[in-house]
Amino acid sequence: MRMGRRKMHHKVLHKNRNLLSRLSEPERTAWRGRADLATVFWGYGVLATSALIVLHAAALMLRQAAFQEVLIVTSALYTGWILVAIWCCSSQAHPFWETLARWLTVAWALNSGFVLAFLQIELLVRALGR
Length: 130
Prior knowledge:
By secondary structure, the protein is mainly alpha-helical. The protein has helices at residues 2-23, 25-31, 37-61, 65-90, 95-128. Helix 3 (37-61) packs antiparallel against helix 4 (65-90) and helix 4 (65-90) packs antiparallel against helix 5 (95-128). The relative contact order is 0.10.
């Protein structure tokens, strides 16, 4: 009986792992540099980052400090992922687009780093000011 439960538990874990693997395949393909640069840049880069910005703006307006902190960490991690994905995917593009994407990636990294650092400083100042 005990062995049967263990096998059943293993099957459920295996199914969930396969589902997660299938759902995250486009992201893993982008990370490996095998995805279309335009899709990664505009879809994962611009649109997804814009959604994070809108969420952060709402959290700022509502003065939700804990949610702001979660968004800062999430944005930092996501930015790291998307910058690597764009850099890797650009190697398959036309040399003009490869160069442009890589320069924009450098600018994006610098901008994101400064913005997230200043958002974090502002959050700390508000927290310590109370």
